[in-house]
């Protein structure tokens, strides 16, 4: 019995020692990480990786924190896209916008070999057959075929709206999640793809209205809105209401307004948000009214019709909203 108690005591001591050592290691790691991200001399976080000298230096005081670190970039140089593609030893990155995530091979449509030489007419017929079977093999079943069609539709709509790459990737992930949870059944592929794109725009703070997405899609605005509400509820997407400030840069560029007018419109909307003047109102209408006020104050007057055409709202909406903002924020407007 005494030996068993001794063994238990030794085991408890070992466990306590392991816990202490793990805590010490964690504290050391934290110290190392903090020392790497903060300058010990002046406490600045503005650190620069100088890859030519292989040094980590502080931008504020010039202290060298690390030296002779490993350069993980390529050992070759490229001066244009063709050189970069020839010298690169890896393929394109994985993407969710292609049904097979871009991991399958592709036979190029140009009849040239890896050295750029033209392929003989004898081998062209064989290459044509290989290319045809490659296209057929890439899509093996109906699920993949539908996914390929939906992702191509997403890419088409995103290109028509001029959306960046991160929005396309997010929309593809949302659509794939909807497919995994079997939310597509009973609904059109175009409607779910348009709803996923609208959700991705809101997630990435690149807002587009339902009317804009309905213009480039093959479904109605009502169906997109209904499908979007269903998808966001089933997938648990926590999306905040769209801020009017997000629309300001796009509307100002459409009206060819200067940066001063844009910053003044953002300030008006920020003050309106603090006084809760934007809640319960359409964000595009409030943004258009703020831009209209800012254009008058900045000496670059735009008519209500011009602003309404760019923002996609009516002139009556702009009139009502700009009167509310001018009255509540004490802004004098000389028409």
Q: Main traits of this protein?
A:
3 strands, three-stranded antiparallel β-sheet, mainly alpha, extended
- Name the poorly predicted regions: none
- Based on the structure, what is the oligomeric state of the protein chains? single chain
Biggest sheet record: 3 strands, antiparallel
Radius of gyration: 29 Å
Principal-axes geometry comes out as: extended
Summarize model confidence as the mean pLDDT: 84
Residues in helices, as a percent range? 55-70%
Structural class: mainly alpha
H and E string:
HEEEHHHHHHHHHHHH
Strand neighbour order, sheet with most strands: 1-2-3
How many strand elements? 3
* Percent of sequence in beta strands: under 5%
Give the terminus-to-terminus CA distance: 98 Å
Description:
- This protein has 13 helices and three strands, in the order H-E-E-E-H-H-H-H-H-H-H-H-H-H-H-H.
- The protein is mainly alpha-helical and 335 residues long.
- The protein starts with a helix and ends in a 7-residue tail after the last helix.
- The mean pLDDT is 84.
